[in-house]
Write a structure and sequence with these properties.
The protein is an alpha/beta fold. It has 4 domains: about 140 residues, Response regulator (Rossmann fold), CATH 3.40.50.2300; about 170 residues, Alpha-Beta Plaits; about 110 residues; about 120 residues, Homeodomain-like (Arc Repressor Mutant, subunit A, Orthogonal Bundle). It is built from 26 helices and 10 strands. The chain has a 5-stranded parallel β-sheet, with helices on both faces. Strands 7-8-6-9-10 form a 5-stranded mixed β-sheet, with helices on both faces. Helix 24 packs across helix 25. About 30% of the residues are buried. This is Stage 0 sporulation protein A homolog. InterPro entries: CdaR_GGDEF, CheY-like_superfamily, Homeodomain-like_sf, HTH_AraC, HTH_AraC-typ_CS, Sig_transdc_resp-reg_receiver. It comes from Anaerocolumna sedimenticola. GO terms for molecular function: DNA-binding transcription factor activity; sequence-specific DNA binding.
């Protein structure tokens, strides 16, 4: 409720305004009354209000002087003038102290209701903007953005320790690395040119300049799948791109990077032309290899020394044998998914994952030796997980597996063989599972679901759930997917979005509060995820839901 003060020297009119208008249904409460401007100012000192509804002509101090002084003391106060004078001078003065509306007496009830309905909408929008700015700054001041940047930077620099519990670390920072095409890029601006601009336009304030970078970056990246940036310094910006298809990567990435560079040049550097170079690494099928792409992006920029004025440098050096020898040490997590799905007898998921992996490997055009190494490693990973079914594995796969892989002439032939034997193995394991064991698995998943529902407003990690049901993280993750048909992360998000929809329609909580109640610390990230899920922003969904309820 917004607090209102009615200032009118005629008692009958003032009482009529206070008592005849349904103020609470409009979103206001009459907190004070006064017969003149001087008394109103004294009351404001003791009892501040959000809105003044004041007459113009009153004894001791009129409405014009009251409005001016009230605006000086309380800059955010809203003012509506109610006057019997239609003189233009009074209207001009009202404009001068930014009155929201100027109503002539005698005014009818409908005009007054319309004025306050419009005022309420305006005040709600202003309050929401202020609250969004406040909470956005709160998260930044708490170091949330810094934590995300440090995580991304460590990932780009090749800190492999990050990949222990990677999913939950990324989820806790609300980073979405879903996709099949992971690429790093960097924009390098000429340092000497920027320093000249800093001296002339920015008073050598690097922080203000980098803050301006962020505003441009947020705007430009808002329409790209999953893209993250790090303003490393005033001359360097690093990027991580995660695309779901090669088509999106081709159509979005380079135009986006070029647009960012040009906007920084045109909007921020007025006196000096600042040259820039964009370096782009190769795309890899797993986020685990993003540091490789990042090193390539940096080397691409170094190559610009020899390539002249070309602003976009895509890495083209195919002499990667040294790295590729070690590439097999860091498998995409999809390999682990396949091994677990086979070990749990989920032959449908096995086929799906293998088909997806081979599609990506072919599109990445990796060396044949690397693809074959993947297949050999897959057999070893499966063996480590199905010690109880080792005889079944030997019966289906046999000794010829390694020989076939090594001698395969093309990737399609290899894919057909691998999918065939691994799906057959998963089916063999599925048929050997005890029905009582399946029943017990369902009980465990029901227990996990209850835990998730009870902790929906908190940060829920894979480790927390798996420890609660006494399973390893990997096994729980895949058992959950096998039984429910969705990943535990998608399941949690669906529950949260369903709860968000209820809260938006049935309560007056602000968007940031709804986000907080369902476990999101960053309301902007929540808004993006909500729109992906519902195809409407939280505000649009709230308005639509309430309109439908009124019909």
């Amino acid at each position: 409720m917004y607090r209102l003060m009615v200032v009118e020297d005629e008692d009958m009119i003032r009482k009529g305004i206070v008592n005849s208008i349904p103020w609470q249904s409009l979103g206001f409460i009459v907190a004070a009354e006064s017969a003149n401007g001087k008394d109103a100012l004294e009351q404001l000192k003791k009892n501040p209000v959000d809105v003044l509804l004041t007459d113009i002509k009153m004894p001791i101090m009129g409405g014009t002087e009251l409005s001016k002084k009230a605006r000086e003391l309380y800059p955010d106060i809203e003012i509506i003038i109610l006057s019997g004078f239609a003189d233009f001078e009074y209207a001009r003065q009202a404009i001068g102290f930014r009155a929201f509306d100027y109503l002539l007496k005698p005014t009818n009830k409908k005009k007054l209701l319309d004025a306050f309905t419009a005022l309420k909408e305006s005040m709600d929008e202003k309050r929401e903007i202020k609250e969004e700015i406040f909470y956005s700054n709160l998260y930044i001041s708490a170091g949330y953005e810094t934590m995300r940047n440090e995580f991304l930077q460590s990932m780009l620099e090749g800190d492999t320790s990050l990949f222990n519990g990677f999913d939950e670390k990324a989820a806790s920072l609300e980073l979405d690395f879903s996709g099949h095409y992971f690429t790093a890029a960097t924009i390098k601006l000429d340092r000497n040119s920027i320093f000249k601009e800093l001296e002339s336009s920015w008073a050598t304030d690097k922080r203000l300049l980098t803050f301006s970078y962020r505003n441009i970056l947020k705007e430009e990246l808002s329409n790209v799948d999953n893209a993250y940036y790090i303003v490393k310094d005033y001359d360097t910006i690093d990027f991580v791109f995660c695309f779901t298809s090669i088509e999106k990567q081709k159509t979005q990435m380079i135009p986006c990077l070029e647009s960012i560079s040009e906007n920084i040049q045109n909007c921020l550097f007025k006196r000096v032309k600042v040259p820039y170079t964009i370096g782009i690494g190769l795309s890899y099928p797993s986020i685990h290899h993003i540091s490789k792409s990042y090193n390539q992006a940096k080397r691409s920029i170094q190559n610009s020394f020899y390539l002249g004025d070309k602003k976009v440098q895509v890495y083209q050096d195919n002499n990667e044998s040294k790295y590729e020898q070690n590439f097999i040490r860091f498998y995409p997590e999809e390999m682990e998914h396949v091994a677990v799905s086979i070990s749990t007898g989920n032959y449908i998921e096995t086929k799906k994952y293998l088909t997806s992996i081979f599609r990506v490997l072919m599109e990445q055009n990796l060396l044949p030796e690397i693809v074959k190494n993947y297949c050999i490693a897959l057999k070893l990973m499966v063996q480590s997980k199905i010690t109880n079914s080792y005889e079944g594995m030997e019966k289906i796969i046999g000794d010829e597996y390694n020989d076939f892989v090594k001698e395969a002439l093309n990737v399609k032939e290899l894919e057909t063989y691998i999918v065939s034997v691994m799906v057959a193995l998963a089916k063999e394991i599925d048929q050997s599972v005890d029905p009582l064991e399946i029943k017990e698995q369902h009980k465990v998943m029901d227990k996990a679901k209850s835990y998730i529902a009870a902790h929906l407003s908190e940060k829920i990690t894979l480790k927390m759930i798996s420890e609660y049901v006494y399973l390893s993280e990997t096994y729980f993750s895949f058992l959950f997917k096998k039984i429910t048909g969705v990943t535990y992360i998608d399941y949690i998000q669906k529950l949260r979005m369903q709860e968000a929809k209820k809260l938006l329609v049935n309560t007056n909580y602000k968007v940031y509060k709804v986000a907080e109640l369902i476990g999101y610390s960053d309301y902007k990230y929540f808004s993006v995820q909500f729109k992906k899920y519902v195809a409407l922003t939280p505000k649009e969904y709230r308005n639509q839901g309430r309109m439908e309820a009124e019909l």
